[in-house]
Amino acid sequence: MVNLKVGNLLLISICTLLFSSCKTEGCTDEKAINYNIVADTDDGSCRYCEELTLTRGTVATSAYDNNFGSIYYNQAVLQLNVKQIEYSYNDASCGIPECKLEYTFVNLINHNATIDVSTVISTTVGTEFYFSNRISVPINSSYTIDEATNCFYSIDGGNINVNVYNSVYN
Predict the structure, then answer these.
(1) For the domain bounded by 51-169, which CATH number is listed?
(2) How does pLDDT run across 94-151, given as a tens digit for each residue?
(3) Which of 15, 109, 116, 141 has the most CB atoms in a 10 Å sphere around its CB?
(4) Considering the entire predicted model, what is its pTM?
(5) 3-class state of residue 55 by DSSP
(6) 82 near 159, Cβ under 8 Å?
(7) Residue 82, exposed/middle/buried by CB under 10 A (0-12, 13-18, 19+)?
(8) Nearest alpha-carbon partner for 103 in 138, 64, 145, 157
(9) Please, are residues 142 and 108 in contact by the beta-carbon 8 Å criterion?
């Protein structure tokens, strides 16, 4: 009976030693997208989310003040630069791709400008993007605003029309 107990104890000790010495390799960083919860040895395979940025197109034009009573009547008061940017990720599990139109208005005059402006960007395939807003652009400065859009059509090579109304200069 004593030999059986010693034998069982020896067998249990050997099994414990064998199984506890087995290491599971994998990514052990919880912040990684391929984290392995059972891994106890890092094998250097961890992958992380990375945001990728692609400029899909740009258009630019000058905005003229067409308000008859304005001190800048029929003059370029703003330079408008529009950039279409696609944000995506290196792995689908990191997020959903999205596009934005980045409107940058550059003040071209010697006054602070507060202007209601509307734009229409027509793509080469006939799709149009609309923007309308009141903006304030200080002297020697610019103002940028982002607007979410789709990534289906590039604005590259498209046309842009700008309408300036309700302008105030000080």
Answers:
(1) 2.60.40
(2) 999 999 999 999 999 999 999 999 888 888 887 888 889 899 999 999 999 898 887 7
(3) 109
(4) 0.72
(5) strand
(6) no
(7) buried
(8) 145
(9) no
